[in-house]
Amino acid sequence: MKHNHSATIALSILALLGWGLFSYQYIKSKSKDNYVGIPYYKEAPNFTLTNHNGEKVFLYQFRGKVTLIVWGYTHCPDICPLTLSMLRDVMKELGELSDKVQVLYITVDPVRDTPERLKGYVPHFYERFIGLTGTPKEIEKVAKDYNVFFINHGDSYGRSESDTWATYLMTHTTTIYLVDPRGKLLITYPYDKFDSKGMAKDIRKVLNQQEERN
Amino acid sequence: MRNVKKILWEALFIILIPVYSFGSPKIEIKEPWVREVPPVSPVTAVYMVIENEGNEDDRLIDVSTEAASQAEIHDTLIDEKGIAKMQRFESMDIPSGKGVELKPGGSHVMLIGLKKALKAGDKIELNLKFEKSGIIKIQAQVK
Hints:
heterodimer, A: alpha+beta, Glutaredoxin, eight-stranded mixed sheet, two-stranded antiparallel sheet, 5 helices, 39% helix, B: mainly beta, Immunoglobulin-like, 1 helix
């Protein structure tokens, strides 16, 4: 009889644990902040830069849309084309909703990345993507505001002066920032969260929340 | 009869010596491809899987192509803060029995100074020089 009693207690505890776990997962899945990316709730610092058509643009003018801010440079062989191709896949994934998304590609190499150069590069991945540049000081300020790191890698890995190509590499932050339609810096996507389906899912969620508020 | 058996064993032994004591790498290149980049970009990357099914290690020591003025072995390293840094290597180890994958966001062959813009569907030829296996010619498709 005593034995039966213990078994009942053990079973009850197991059942409770199971229920707890289920509820936790359920609440987690319903939570508004459950994103594929990393939640980062703060006001997105405004900035004014020059777009690839040579016009001044500022972040706040994209309010009402989901803005994705990425950092890179046009002499980048691997990670930057990878990032822009992945974002093109996000746009395809979103279909009609992609009209409510704006990608801003901010160069970390303003000396070489003139508006003309960005014009030949950024829209090649997706017509509506916008490349942004500025003076080195302007770029430094925006990077600082967004906690973005970049440095001219130069010839620090053994390139000799006699090499004929006048180019250098940059080390830079690859994280993508998502600014919601109200101008909140809501989510960040470090490299290990680069997943076009997951990002598209987050963007749908953010746009739905915006509609519920309106 | 004993002698015949002895000779047979010796013959077998002699045949097997080269198989077991003189190993060699066996390099095979799979799925090589080049990333299409906008025409203004002078650089791109080549990716592939390098397999070595032989019983000896090998090393990739040089890459050359007519498509670019330089080709270098690089690795993109991304730290926990999401900062990407590229590193150049003089060579790349290809251990026996294992494959090395050159993939986006990792090891790649960087092409510097593209001689003409590469469009999806184009093919470029590369010479991969290995320390022991010598030069292996491959064709990589742009996509």
